[in-house]
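Case study 2.
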Amino acid sequence: MIVGALVIFIIANTLLADPHAGAAPLEPASDTGPCSLAQTVPATIVLVDDDFDLLLDDGRRVALAGIELPSANGENAKLHALAWQRLSNWLAGAQVYLAALAPAPDRWGRLPAQVIAAADSAADSPYVSVGAIILTEGLARFRPDPAAASCSKLYLDAEGAARNSSLGLWANDPIIQIGDESATSTATLLGKKGMAIVAGTVNSVGETKGSIYLNLGRRGVLDFAVMISQRNLARCA
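Prediction:
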């Protein structure tokens, strides 16, 4: 059985020049509920650094939880620059609303959070989720951080809109194309570093003392399988 050494999304059923073309309309942030304005506090962003950390005027560093932005190296370098420009132009110097999604900073000293900001400089501009908008425009992928669980539905829906419209990262980029359960696709995925999306049908389920296995193929060790640790099983409910 080949187990993906990657972060995997299972999708049940399943341009660079202008990332906003074809993007869904900006949806105002909800006042209540998961990933909403509830329990947020105002903050001012001074700058967005090259690693997409948001530096606040009080010295704190914030990371957009659940958001995987393009690498500055390799084939997505141009998109990295485009994503940085988008966030920098939008957020540098802006007052935003911040909701910490973890009780303490990560090992790099960044506070994982969701950020809600005015969509533009107009006086009546709606406040929107920064993470959701970046995903909708195809400038990032959803990363299933435990800290971002409350925003997962919003973020996955936003990413799906960009994927379906082939925007940004999803514009026929072979690095992040959706794989399947075949041996050829599995070998390709395991040769990559980072996250991958695999679409397929669960053919069988196996269980050991410590893990659950979702087998997407019929050929055992030749096909793709997802391993879920028993201790993490509740997060998948």
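The chain has two domains: 2-10+174-236, 20-166.
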